[in-house]
Amino acid sequence: MLTNEYLKRVYETVLTRNPGESEFHQAVLEVLESLEPVVENHPEYEKNGIMERFVEPERFIQFSVPWVDDNGRVRVNRGFRVQFNSAIGPYKGGLRFHPSVTASVIKFLGFEQTLKNSLTTLPMGGGKGGSDFDPKGKSDGEVMRFCQSFMNELYKHIGQFTDIPAGDIGVGAREVGYLFGQYKRLTGTFQGGTITGKGIPFGGSLARTQATGYGLCYFAEEALKCMRNDSFAGKIVVVSGSGNVATYAAEKCTQLGGKVVAMCDSNGYIYDANGVDLKKVMDIKQRRRARIKVYADEVPGSEYHEGCHGIWNVKCDIALPCATQNEMDLEGAKALIANGCMGVFEGANMPLTPDAIAAVQEAGLLYSPGKASNAGGVATSGLEMTQNSMRLSWSFEEVDQRLQGIMNNIFHAAYDASVEVGKPGDLMVGANVAGFLKVASAMLAQGVV
Fold first, then answer.
1. DSSP structure string for 150-180
2. Which residue, 99, 143, 284, 371, is most buried by CB atoms nearer than 10 A?
3. pTM above the 0.85 mark?
4. End-to-end Cα distance, the chain
5. pLDDT digit string (tens) for 110-120?
6. Looking at residue 328, what DSSP letter applies?
7. Which domains does the chain carry?
8. Which DSSP letter does residue 289 get?
9. Helix, strand, or coil (residue 1)
């Protein structure tokens, strides 16, 4: 609940200007509540309209994406790009292709991305984009034609010094390849730093595929060590999702000594008391593009349960929600708490509802917001941009080492900021404060622009 009158006015303006956009409202309110003590100590923010400018996208682009399916039928989807804040660098953020994509979802993601990118300490502003197109069940030809049509409009608004898209849900190596190819065709130039998440042969970075999942576990391991004198070793772990983030989070936490016993997709979840066979999951989801239910059909002793929300009823020590926004509600959080879970670290963007966050924090569990703990993906995208600019390629080990250093630094920045504002150990408040202060400082220095 906001108590600061200035922030109340700012939030009311957000509600008025963005009616019905619940995801965006939720993201803004969480951040403004965290920033109350900071704003009260900085009257210059109100004088210079910092908060009003901070919550208002610098640019929002919506466009139609017509394409032709394999049956010759013309389809039309909506495309979006939000260029939220460029105070500390060019806009940077992924593209999401999923039926749930709306203006509200894109705005919330772009808003969160501004803080996330700030936390990496790399010179990147906040942006995000996508479409309500669903690549599931589409042929390669259909995906290619959609991506080419999408880029026909998007290319006008991006560039390595302007706005750098990447992948997100529904946008993997295949989609990034098609998008980059069309950008190259339209511009007649090879600007490798304009899109990240590219294939290795044409300027991609080693370790980028693994980066978000690996980075999540590096952050969690540092938090466990510094705040609980503990680690992943011997812990039972539940990972929601089965895409890139979830798969590589499961892989890294296994390498760190944890045992993943449950994963899911949008239809349901699997439980394997012996530890999930990640090679099997990768084969099912990445190569065959099948539903995770197949796992239970092919792995003796494992179980499949309809409904992905039930995954939080699985007893575990650590939960890594890596699927999508608001996937864990109050009921799910209470189930984790009742089963003795010690920590929840967000791998997706805003996967916990506000009620779930409150319950987890009140119960004394370790909790980290996605803007901090899932920043490894965009951090490594930033490293990919650096390699493209320098015309060189680093080894997997070098990128991974840099990633681990960045994630450790993000944890300490969030923790230190939480101490400074009188809420030691509240990593949500700490991440919001640490990310915001850098952006606000740059906005003040650059004047009213």
1. HHHHHGGG-BTTTEEEE--TT--HHHHHHHH
2. 371
3. yes
4. 30
5. 999 999 999 99
6. B
7. 59-190 (3.40.50.10860), 210-368 (3.40.50.720)
8. -
9. coil
